[in-house]
Amino acid sequence: MCTEVVRRYHDTGPFRFRGRTGGTAPIWWTPTDKLTVKLSYFQEREEHVLVLLNGKATDQKYESLGGGIEKGEFGGTFKGIFDPATATSFRWTSWKRVRRQRMAIFAYCVDRAHSRYVVASGAPGDVQQAVVAFHGEMEVDRETVTL
Predict the structure, then answer these.
(1) DSSP state, residue 84
(2) What is the pLDDT of residue 129?
(3) Domain count of the fold of the chain
(4) Would you say the pTM of this structure is higher than 0.70?
(5) Is 88:59 a contact under the CB 8 Å cutoff?
(6) Buried b (16+ CB within 10 A) or exposed e, 103-117
(7) Is the dihedral of CA 34, 69, 8, 74 positive or negative?
(8) Torsions phi, psi for 144 (to 5 deg)
(9) What gap in Å lies between CA 100 and CA 142, rounded to an integer?
(10) Strands in 1-146 per DSSP E
(11) 141 pLDDT exceeds 60?
């Protein structure tokens, strides 16, 4: 079980175009919302429960949100982080205490060249997708981890 924080954005800038010099017009990203989700993964099944929407408690269902949401990728992504083929880089950052347990905090990063994480968006028949790099932090319970 973990807490996932998702910050969503939309493009409000000019359309992309190639000029005579080969340059591209800038793309402007504007924050849309911030989702705080309780995410559990058990027996290869995920459950997402929206807890906060823009920092405020909500009863709204995760599945009812408009825009891009992810589902079913946590377990696969988590496995992928530890797959040697992804060449994930790990960096210890600090210790902290959570409910009296000492936790080691690690930052991780998977570059685009080694990633298998695909983001897709669009209407049926006009879906665009891209393989993207990703990064994050994980807290490891020192008392229960086995190496």
Answers:
(1) G
(2) 85
(3) 2
(4) no
(5) no
(6) beeeebebeeebbeb
(7) positive
(8) -115, -5
(9) 12
(10) 2-11, 29-42, 45-53, 56-57, 89-98, 101-110, 118-123, 126-131, 134-141
(11) yes
Confidence at 72, pLDDT banded by 50, 70, 90: low
Within 8 A by CB and 6+ apart from 35, the residues are 4, 5, 6, 7, 8, 50, 52, 53, 62, 65, 69
CA 101 from chain centre, in angstroms, equals 25
Where is the domain boundary, 37, 67, 97?
A: 67
- The predicted-structure confidence for 47-66, as pLDDT tens digits, reads as follows 899 999 999 999 999 888 87
Residue where a domain stops, chosen among 67, 82, 111: 67
Q: Identify the bridge partners of residue 104 per DSSP, sorted by sequence position.
A: 95, 140
Q: Can you give the residue range of the structural domain that contains 97? A: 73-147
Task: Please answer whether residues 40 and 54 qualify as being in contact, where contact means their C-beta atoms are separated by less than 8 angstroms.
Answer: no
Residue 136 to residue 35: CA distance in whole angstroms? 16
